[in-house]
Task: structure prediction
Amino acid sequence: MEFNQFFPPHDGISLRELASHLGAELLDDSAGNRRIRSVAPVARAAEGQVCYLRSRKGRGDLASCHASAIICEPAIRPIIPDNIPVLLTAKPETAFAMAGALLHPAALRPGAVVSGSTGVHPAAHVDPTAQLEPGVEIEPMAVIGARAEIGSGTRIGAGAVIGADVKIGRDCAIAPGATVIAALLGNGVIIHNGARIGQDGFGYAPGPRGMLKIVQIGRVIVQDNVEIGANTTIDRGTMDDTVVGEGTKIDNLVQIGHNVRIGRHCGIVSGVGIAGSTTIGNGVMIGGASGINGHITIGDGAQIAAMSGVIADVPAGARYGGVPARPLKDFLRDVAEAMARSDERAKLKGDRNE
Result:
């Protein structure tokens, strides 16, 4: 790929300096003065770029690799061509993430829509009772409601809506088109385009003439350093709060129902739906397109495979998958048995047709 105007290359850092920043070992010190300006995939990495190889499955990409350095773990080192300097580390993916953050810091969070804009843009609407600390940026067409409070270093993107009484901490990024109402956000929170935070939860009671709406008077609490993907929705609580714990990362197009409590440093992938009043522990990983039943508990460190249907509690540290979700080894055994039966039926049908 040619020069990318959206995320231009870094001015350059020496390979020796990069190795030190990553805590990696540069195997060929004579290459230490090479300048690294950007990251790239292995197959098309060129001079001035660094890439990483996570497994031997990517070996074929090395044939077209002309990177100035490649990050890998010791087990992968023997397959790297001798002409490519190696940065050796036990955690190549982590090192590559650190390299990307150093070389392309603007890609870490939603950027400004209006070039050079600082402070409150004249085309934004900020209620006179809102309180903005120094260094807050409000882009065109953004709306800041009554009594809202926003901390220094935070940017509110174009067309975003921050509701009345919302509190947003310092160094946050609210991308264009997002809405935040009935919510309290900590420091370092990133909310991507089109996310909806704090709207009604889904609650109704049967009445003589149809469904009666149950009022939702809780809040959404988002702790420090949480990232929420584009078009994700997080409903406010019915009477208690919906809580997203510190450091948790939520992908695009996730639905989180009212009164859900998510622990710290969880990872929730695109398409997941979490029904109301579910409790999710710390360090839980939930694969894409999984459905989580309401009023259940998923224990600390549990892992849920993609496209699973979780209908009951999951113990801490467990690995579950399937519909209904069950211990992963049981799910894989069931899949293997089903495939074997399918193959047997196909063979019998073939024998009858001969």
About this structure: The first helix runs from residue 15 to 22. The chain has two domains: 13-108, 125-329. The CA atoms of residues 200 and 353 lie 59 Å apart. The chain has three helices and 39 strands.
